[in-house]
Every structure is written in structure tokens, then in C-alpha cells.
UniProtKB/TrEMBL annotation:
Belongs to the purine/pyrimidine phosphoribosyltransferase family. It catalyses: AMP + diphosphate = 5-phospho-alpha-D-ribose 1-diphosphate + adenine. Residues 47-161 form the Phosphoribosyltransferase domain. The gene is APRT. Homodimer. This is Adenine phosphoribosyltransferase. GO terms for molecular function: adenine binding; adenine phosphoribosyltransferase activity; AMP binding. It comes from Erpetoichthys calabaricus.
Length: 181
């Protein structure tokens, strides 16, 4: 029997495990490893993203995933949608000409990179990651895609940490999340 959206959400939620004080004191880490390990939860997760994207963005050209945990969901979703997958990587991992954007972390700087020929001007992309916290990573990746000439339709995440206001940081770019904590 086909499960409802609510049933899928409840099942997936049971596979997200909280860890206190990881990776540093005061952080409540949302661990998705049990979800990845469970075939039913993984399928349900991709089902829910697929359903949303087919209804909302049938014109999407590429799914763009963020290194590293965005790579867990992005290619599975892209395959379901019948589109390609583009990798946004942490600095220094991609060969050939690249474009990059640097951004500020709580302590220090970080940089994300994409291959310069990854997208063509005007191509429509959706970004995907496991989680949005402060929104710094997704914001930098969106800026990177715009720098390459892509049209950013929106962002997809499994988890939104509402208290950190990461969605507000994305300005007018819509962010779709399956769970909000
Ligand atoms: O909204 P933000 O404050 O930018 O935080 C969210 C990001 O932090 C984590 O990535 P991280 O780079 O820590 O680890 P990963 O390499 O395992 O994805 C998470 O996977 C998101 O990408
Ligand atoms: N609380 C959290 N849990 C899992 N991944 C994260 N990335 C940033 N904050 C996180
Ligand atoms: Mg990440």
C-alpha cells in the first residue's frame, strides 16, 4: 500500500538521531546516518523531494549538491527527475578552471568551488543540502551559481534549524525543508 506524506515524514523523522555536544559543546547535532542506512527512509526522503520538485519546478535543468552531505541526496533526486547533478565542492578538490566564492564561518573563512563549465548561462538550478543552520553554506553556493550565470530557482534541505535563521539569510531565494527543528 502507498504510504501518505505524513506517514513518510514520521518514518523518516524516527531515523534522525540527535547527539548533544557534537562536534563541540552546546551543539545539538542531527545525525542522518540511520536514515541513510534504512532503505525505506532513504526512498521516502527522495520521494518527498521528488514530489515537491515535480509540482513546483518542472523546468529545472540541474540539481546542484553541496559537498559533502548534499552529495548523499542530490544524485538520487537528480536521477529520479531525469536531470544531471552538479557538484559544489570545498576548495581545492576540482580539476580544471573553476569559479569560487569565499564566505565567513563562525571562526575563519571557507571557500566553495564549481567547475567553470558546470552550467551554462540561464540554466535553471535547484541546490540541495542535508541541513540549513546559519545558511552561510547555501548562500555561498547560491552566489557561486549566480556567478556562473545560472538561474537559482531555490534550495532543498532535509532539515532546517529554525533558531539560526538561515532561511532569512537566503533573501528572496525559496528554501524548502522537510523538517524544522
Ligand atoms: O547553514 P550552515 O551554517 O552553513 O551549516 C550547514 C552546513 O553544515 C554542514 O556541513 P559541513 O561542511 O559542516 O559538513 P559536511 O562536509 O559533512 O557536509 C551541513 O552539512 C551543511 O552543509
Ligand atoms: N546541528 C547540526 N547538526 C548536523 N549538521 C549540522 N551542520 C551544522 N549544524 C548542524
Ligand atoms: Mg555540509
Amino acid at each position: 500500500m502507498q504510504e501518505s506524506r505524513e506517514e513518510k515524514l514520521n518514518y523518516i523523522m524516527g531515523k534522525i538521531r540527535p547527539f548533544n555536544d557534537f562536534p563541540s559543546k552546546g551543539v545539538l547535532f542531527r545525525d542522518i546516518c540511520p536514515l541513510m542506512k534504512d532503505h525505506k527512509a532513504l526512498c521516502a526522503t527522495i520521494d518527498l523531494f521528488e514530489e515537491y520538485v515535480k509540482q513546483t519546478y518542472p523546468m529545472v535543468d540541474f540539481i546542484v549538491g553541496l559537498d559533502a552531505r548534499g552529495f548523499l541526496f542530490g544524485p538520487l533526486l537528480a536521477q529520479r527527475l531525469g536531470v544531471g547533478f552538479v557538484l559544489v565542492r570545498k576548495k581545492g578538490k576540482l580539476p580544471g578552471p573553476t569559479e569560487s566564492v569565499s564566505y565567513t564561518l563562525e571562526y575563519g573563512q571557507a571557500e566553495v568551488e564549481v567547475q567553470a563549465d558546470a552550467v551554462e548561462k540561464g540554466q535553471r538550478v535547484l541546490l540541495i543540502d542535508d541541513l540549513i543552520a546559519t545558511g552561510g553554506s547555501l548562500h555561498a553556493a547560491c552566489e557561486l551559481m549566480k556567478k556562473c550565470g545560472a538561474e537559482v530557482l531555490g534550495c532543498l534541505v532535509l532539515i532546517e534549524l529554525k533558531g539560526l535563521k538561515g532561511v532569512e539569510r537566503q533573501g528572496s531565494t525559496p528554501v524548502f525543508s522537510l523538517f524544522q527543528y
